[in-house]
Amino acid sequence: MPCFVYVLGCRTRGRVLTYVGWTLDVPRRLTQHNSGKGARFTRGRAWVLLHTEKFRTRRQAMSREWHLKRDRKVRRGLARNL
To answer: How far apart are CA 77 and CA 82, in angstroms?
Structure first.
């Protein structure tokens, strides 16, 4: 079953925030984040999907998530679209 890594973005109080995660179903996960049932950091904000990547295994997706969470330059470049 394919896994996905996703990057969400949100503009709040003049700041741009990003969130990186992995899932099996991107639309369902985005709905969870926007309804307040996602990760605690994402609650109370309106998130938009900035980027997704598809992987064959959960291990590959989790590894890519780990790298994206530490690469602020990439996340900042994606957030320019907000």
So the answer is: 10
